[in-house]
Amino acid sequence: MSRTELREEWEGRLAEFEPSGQTATDWCAEQGINIHRFRYWSSKLRENRRKPSNGEVRWLSVEMESVIKPSSNEALTVQVGQARIEVSEGFNAKLFIQVVQALANAHP
């Protein structure tokens, strides 16, 4: 089996595991998969998702529930995963970008 085929096989297995609601140990036992191999591939693929191999910038998708025009004293709430960040007029844009990137890397 080629490296590409092996990677695709494990990507498929992990995609099946994620919505199962089971622990990794239980799911692996049910599937007849070695838990140590599962953890290796889970870590390897998660690490590769965080680091684009070609140096490209990866964009996060944004879902707008509603569009409002905030007044100058209202804060804007941004949610990344389970984290919420409130920003208001005059916020530090550089710091905001760093925080969003850190949160995105923590929750792929």
Describe what you observe in this structure:
- This protein is elongated.
- It starts with a helix and ends with a helix.
- The longest helix is centred in the middle third of the chain and has 16 residues, at 35-50.
- The mean pLDDT is 80.
- A two-stranded antiparallel sheet has the order 1-2.
- With 108 residues, the protein is mainly alpha-helical.
- 49% of the residues lie in helices and 9% in strands.
- It has four helices and two strands; from the N terminus they run H-H-H-E-E-H.
- The chain has helices spanning 3-17, 24-31, 35-50, 93-106, and strands at 76-80, 83-87.
List the helices and strands and how they pair.
Layout: H1 3-17, H2 24-31, H3 35-50, E1 76-80, E2 83-87, H4 93-106
Antiparallel strand pairs: 1-2
Helix pairs in contact: 1-3
